[in-house]
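Dear H.,

Thanks for agreeing to be a second pair of eyes. The structure we're designing against is below in token form, covering all 569 positions.
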């Protein structure tokens, strides 16, 4: 029996609520397979299934999306993250997840006033020269008010909803247990690492709850664009910024989705599309820290064809190694060279398979052939006709067909590429992401192989080797101390050990049966020579029974040996 996914009364009530929502939206089978119905009924909570038929006619992706919306901010955010996992879900699921939004009616000012005063160090009306009580916008985690500083600077004040953190923490605890339960109940999910996916989601959501972290990320990106006046990042006012409140410069521009105002203002759509693409590509390829959700709602257009990015609650990070791999992958796609694409994806899947010990499920030759066939179909296609976002989605679809998942840090990257290309096409129907990306990718690759860069990487390798060598005496000393105390453990993993054990067991069984057959033959022969006793067909009955048992045992031995020979590789 699996342990219930709750450890407190509050958790139990939340599980009960989640079960009712899933059933109401036609997902009762999930509740049954997880065993929740039994737990709830044993605890005296009746589970009603009649609503399951009300929405049975809706496609499962629609049912799932509606359930996530009703379950609240944690599940809405989870759905938004899953919208970028084309390697895990089919297009119809991704399409529904993309419809999830976190816009909710803002709370009345009186509901947030006390918390806001605690964080600001005084009443908002005293801290600011002007504070607008009517919220500008509301979301599941926070709401935004406008204000003015003493010097007249217009700012926005982002306030976290009171009590939202305990609710999200409880939900994250339940979702992680749910992922572990699903991974045990459905072994087919193991290659997709649901537990690790939920843990990554939890870390991302906790960072988003901390507005101070969001502001530090914004300042890092602003520093990276210090020499690019065409890109604007809102200034942060740290005097009033805390974990639950964020005060930053108000951007007075045209929202990214209002293309009518863009035309009315005389802005050049082509220039805006190109600059937006170059800005995000710079974040990804050069800086390794990028805005993970560059949709039109997070972009403003300013006079002089400038752009402003806002809302850095969701950012992606790429290590130097990952950026090198990404360069090879993107260049392979843009230049229609299948081998680099296959090599990079095989490296990623190798690391995933090693982590999960599922190498036997990955047929590398078939995977490589599928990738090469996919990339080769673009051979000779003009660069202007390539859709880089669509190509990335197709690559992840191939991985999904092979039951492989991308590393978590790359899922946000592909989501950013798709959002960016969609925004560029909205501005300029002739926008081509591949055309914009090729020069920057080529330049970045050349930078990686400049003599200075090669020398720096060589020096770093020498330094790491020196650190290992110099630390060797200390490591040996610790090993010897552990050995003297009996704390050294040696684990030996012998491949196919179970199969060897089964073979030995079968051999022992056949040997035992052979000995019994031989004993029956010898004993029956002796009985046949002794007179007296019951007769059968004129012969000693016990002797005949012994011979019959020996014959049955002999037939079993022959069949067992024959089958063993057929199954032997």
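And this is the sequence the design step returned. I haven't edited it by hand at all.
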């Amino acid at each position: 029996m699996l342990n219930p996914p709750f450890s407190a009364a509050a958790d139990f009530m939340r599980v009960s609520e989640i079960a009712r929502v899933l059933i109401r939206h036609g997902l009762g089978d999930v509740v049954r397979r997880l065993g929740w119905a039994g737990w709830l009924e044993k605890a005296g909570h009746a589970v009603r299934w009649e609503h399951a038929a009300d929405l049975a006619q809706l496609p499962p992706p629609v049912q799932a999306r509606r359930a996530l919306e009703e379950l609240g901010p944690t599940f809405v955010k989870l759905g938004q993250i899953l919208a970028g996992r084309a390697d895990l879900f089919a297009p119809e699921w991704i399409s529904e997840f993309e419809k999830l939004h976190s816009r909710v009616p803002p709370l009345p000012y009186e509901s947030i006033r006390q918390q806001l005063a605690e964080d600001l160090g005084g009443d908002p009306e005293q801290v600011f020269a002007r504070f607008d009580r009517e919220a500008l916008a509301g979301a599941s985690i926070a709401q935004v008010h406008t204000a003015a500083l003493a010097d007249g600077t217009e700012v926005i004040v982002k306030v976290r909803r009171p009590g939202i953190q305990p609710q999200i923490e409880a939900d994250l605890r339940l979702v992680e247990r749910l992922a572990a339960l699903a991974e045990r109940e459905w072994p087919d999910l193991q290659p997709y690492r649901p537990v690790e996916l939920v843990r990554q989601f939890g870390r991302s959501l906790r960072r988003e709850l901390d507005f101070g972290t969001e502001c530090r990320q914004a300042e890092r990106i602003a520093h990276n664009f210090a020499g690019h006046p065409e890109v604007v990042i809102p200034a942060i006012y740290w005097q009033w910024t805390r974990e639950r409140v964020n005060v930053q410069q108000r951007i007075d521009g045209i929202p990214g989705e209002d293309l009518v105002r863009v035309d009315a203002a005389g802005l050049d759509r082509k220039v805006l599309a190109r600059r937006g693409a170059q800005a995000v590509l710079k974040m990804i390829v050069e800086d390794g820290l990028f805005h993970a959700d560059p949709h039109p709602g997070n972009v403003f257009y300013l006079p002089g064809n400038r752009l402003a990015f806002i809302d850095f609650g969701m950012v992606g990070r790429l290590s130097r190694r990952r950026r090198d791999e990404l360069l090879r992958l993107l260049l392979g796609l843009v230049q229609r060279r299948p081998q680099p694409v296959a090599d990079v994806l095989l490296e990623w899947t190798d690391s995933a398979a090693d982590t999960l010990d599922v190498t036997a499920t990955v047929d590398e030759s078939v995977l490589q052939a599928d990738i090469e066939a996919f990339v080769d179909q673009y051979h000779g296609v003009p660069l202007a006709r390539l859709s880089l976002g669509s190509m990335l989605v197709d690559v992840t679809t191939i991985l999904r067909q092979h039951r492989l998942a991308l590393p978590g840090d790359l899922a946000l990257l592909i989501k950013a590429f798709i959002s960016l290309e969609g925004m560029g096409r909205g501005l300029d129907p002739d926008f081509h992401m591949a055309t914009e990306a090729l020069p920057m990718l080529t330049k970045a690759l050349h930078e990686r192989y400049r003599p200075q860069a090669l020398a720096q990487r060589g020096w770093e390798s020498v330094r790491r080797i020196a650190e290992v060598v110099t630390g060797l005496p200390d490591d040996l000393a610790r090993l010897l101390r552990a050995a003297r105390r009996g704390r050294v453990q040696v684990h030996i993993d012998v491949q196919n050990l179970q199969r060897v054990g089964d073979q030995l067991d079968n051999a022992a069984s056949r040997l035992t049966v052979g000995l019994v057959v031989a004993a029956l033959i010898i004993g029956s022969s002796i009985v046949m020579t002794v007179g007296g006793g019951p007769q059968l067909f004129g012969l000693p009955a016990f002797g005949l029974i012994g011979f019959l048992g020996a014959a049955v045992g002999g037939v079993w031995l022959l069949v067992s040996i024959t089958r063993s020979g057929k199954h032997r590789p």
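Two observations from my side: The two ends are 38 Å apart (CA to CA). Residues 352-360 have pLDDT under 50 and may be disordered.

Warmly,
E.
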